[in-house]
Amino acid sequence: MAPTSHLPLFGGVRAWSPNDWTSSDDRVRGGSSQSELTCSPSSLIAKFHGTLDITALGGAGFASQRTTGEDRTWDLTAYDGIELVIDSADNKVYTFTLKDEILPKRPDGRERSSVSWEFNFRAEGSRTIFVKWSDFRPTYRGKNKDDAEPLDLKKIKRFGIMIRSFFGEQEGAFSLNIVSIAAMRTERYLDEPDDDYIDNVMNEKSATTTASRQAGRCRGWFGWLTSCLGF
Question: Would you say which domain of life the source belongs to (predicted)?
């Protein structure tokens, strides 16, 4: 279904900016993976790339980029999900993440863990992926958290793109070229009908009114005729 409303978040008409992103790799846990998001306002594509290392953490590993700023908030309640436009990729499995809460940092400056909402996808060539809110699953420290509170779409605090090893299933160099990330509304709502909907309603009302008038005239003529014939 074609989108009825489209909110560019990164890329597209909103130029990519390296100031919007920062790395969050497994080196914070003693790993050796590393990632970059290479982009600029003059580029139509952001390249998420780096090396996924699984040797330092015994088969585990992850590399990710996340949005910067702890005071940023996006209200996405008017939308039905996230659209990812991929230019090219390496056939690896990536994870798109959302957070609606960022906890105060620890005394040593490290971030406290909080629930992440994740969607895994295999990036194959050029494609557009639409992720409904119901497709995101809550996790805590990489494990499913089935008792998590519902995702608060009114205060999305962070976006992220990640690649993980899945305990040795994938490793080494990776590369994902992203055209844009946007929020999309795909459902048709009665409070915001489009022009075609309005035209159809008006045509239906007009047709109904005309048919009613014709039926009334027929009933009137038929009644006069039957009364003259004594029926």
Answer: Eukaryota
